[in-house]
Known about the structure:
This protein has one domain (3-66, 77-145): Four Helix Bundle (Hemerythrin (Met), subunit A). It contains five helices and two strands. The chain has helices at residues 3-24, 27-31, 41-60, 83-103, 121-145, and strands spanning 111-114, 117-120. Strands 1-2 form a two-stranded antiparallel sheet. The longest helix has 25 residues, at 121-145.
Amino acid sequence: MTPMEYAIKAMENAARNYKKDLEAMTEEQIVDSVSGSARKPVDFTYEVALLNKDAAARIAGTERPVEPEGDEWWTAPPELQSKQAITDYMVNCCDELIEAAKANVENGDKNVGIEGRVRPAYDLVNFSMMHTMYHCAQLNFIQSMADDMKMHWF
Length: 154
């Protein structure tokens, strides 16, 4: 298995796990803050989705999405401020990344630019997987705070 094939498999798993956790949550758990000041799951899910979409564009060599301006944490636009909308957007962006990676399996070692440096395309997919699972852990924590101790991935 090539590094890109391994990265694709890991990203597929991360995308599946994230989707299952979103589906297990209520609308309120996704669009509201657990403490009033903590980031909302809808907003950090938007961040994950948009960065996965950006990684797909970098790998495919297509036009990159426009990132929100400012130094603040990104917030989901109004049209994505629902459980269904953000879940669909997340799934679509993950699918874009997975498809771009699959189309470039033979070029997994090609360098892509990111944040003033270059890295192999497969490494960008690996980073995207890690970032996706990092925020998936936040979903798990919110679920546990609501007494949902079930592992929704299985």
